Amino acid sequence: MSLKQNIVNQVRELRQTDSILWMIALGHTFTHWCPATFYLLLPFLVKEMGLTYAQAGFLVTIRAAANLLINIPAGMLVDLIGKKALLMALALVATGVPYFLVGVSQNYFWIALFMAFVGVGNYLWHPAAISTLSERYPDKRGFAIAIHAMGPNVGESLAPLLVGILLLYLSWRSVLFINLIPGIVIAFILWKFLFGKLDSVTQRKKGLSAKEYFSGMKKLAQNPSILLLVLVAGMRSMTQQGLHTFIPIYLTNDLGLSSAVAGLYPSVIQTAGLIGTPIAGSMSDRSGRKRVLSAGLFSTSIALIVLAYFRLNWLFISGLAMLGFFLYAVRPVIWAWVLDLSPKEVGGSTVSFFSGAQSLLSSVSPWLCGMIADRWGILSAFYFLAGTVFVANLIVLAIREEAKESPVLVQEPA
Fold first, then answer.
1. Contact, 321 vs 273, CB < 8 A?
2. How confident is the prediction along the chain (414 residues), in pLDDT tens digits per residue?
3. Backbone angles phi, psi at 206, to 5 degrees
4. Which of 392, 368, 344, 113 is nearest to 245 (CA)?
5. Which residue spans within 117-200 are E strands per DSSP?
6. Which of 264, 270, 311, 400 has its CA 20 to 30 A from that of 36?
7. Residue 288: left if φ>0, alpha if ψ -120 to 50, beta else—which one?
8. In the CATH scheme, what architecture does the domain 16-397 have?
9. For the packed helices 141-166 and 259-287, what is the interaxial angle rounded to 10 degrees?
């Protein structure tokens, strides 16, 4: 298929997308707005408190590690209770408040303590939202999850730009206080336009019994392809988390860029990801998950090497754009592949199990990259992350691409 035809198909699919999918993507935008804001504020927190790279990385690590305790119960709530719209609403409320508490904290202990709670909303959101999309759009699962994944790209593109400008005039603490405003606005929009409309077979059905739930989880744990994909997703998340943490520190503290300029560079990554995500999701629906995923991971490794080697010239910008395009494009492909293979009756717990495994590996990444940067320099951390993506690609090549299961539920037309 020609490039022109691919673009035409993408435009046609976007025009046919219904409002519920866009509303869920909008909610997903805010769940990633707050973390994107914090990454850009982190260099200022480091400077104010005189932290080492390892201490800075630990603040991100403790967030991901603590979220493992929340992750599995969140998926069980989705599958056993079944009230996904209500759980999505609660997730939005729980997203911004812990960051506000970080902003009022005056020492490292309290900041680290509140950082352990900042992912509650995010991890409650994903099982409810992604399992809803998987069931509602069974024939366009990759594309639907890709649209949902565009939400973080939008939030993480706009947040660094706006926050970078605000930091020219305000302290990092004041920015965290202001950061609650987008959450309130988006929560109101979702309450007004989404939660009254989300009334499909999926939302009306009762939750699972405990016996049905554990039977589905047993099937999930016995599939080796799912377990290997979980490992691949975790290694990709290691790369993403390490870059989110140390690119702003590198640009601000090592290269001496202003906050506004430093905010522009992460925005380049996210904008490129915004373009690549629906393309990869739709291509994986037509051409197969394995081919698209392998190509994306290999290209991510190359982009990271270019990023670390060429520093601040035009190839650095090109490397950032290439990195964002492929790193974020493969995310919905992995999600769609896992949901293709998993039991449909435990979609929420599949998402939680998957997210938890990602968190287990990504929680180590900032702290480990911080120690590497303290010992050998911050660019060495970027080379380490390139290696993790390369190993992930080798694992993908070992996974057998199985045929999709037929959807269990009869769904409304997307």
1. no
2. 554 555 555 555 555 556 677 778 888 888 877 777 887 788 888 888 888 888 888 887 777 667 667 666 666 666 666 666 777 777 777 777 888 888 888 888 888 888 877 777 777 777 777 777 777 776 677 777 777 777 777 877 787 778 888 888 888 888 888 877 777 777 777 666 655 555 444 444 445 555 655 666 666 666 788 888 888 888 888 888 888 888 888 888 777 777 777 777 777 887 787 787 778 877 887 777 888 888 888 888 888 877 777 665 556 677 777 888 888 888 888 878 877 777 665 556 676 667 766 777 777 888 888 889 888 888 888 888 888 888 888 888 888 776 554 444 333 333
3. -80, 160
4. 368
5. none
6. 311
7. left
8. Up-down Bundle (1.20)
9. 180
CA gap 170, 150 in Å, rounded = 29
Query: For residue 401, what is the DSSP state?
Result: -
Q: In sequence order, what are the residues at sequence separation of 6 or more whose Cβ sits closer than 8 angstroms to the Cβ of residue 171?
A: 44
Q: How far is CA 385 from CA 139, 161, 170, 329, 390, in A?
A: 34, 25, 33, 17, 9
For residue 170, what is the DSSP state? S
Q: Within the chain, what is the greatest distance between any pair of CA atoms?
A: 59
Report the distance separating Cα 381 and Cα 53, nearest Å.
11
Q: Which two tokens stand for residue 283?
A: 């291509």
Burial label for 80, CB within 10 Å (0-12, 13-18, 19+), is middle
pTM above 0.70, yes or no: no
Domain residue extents for the chain: 16-397
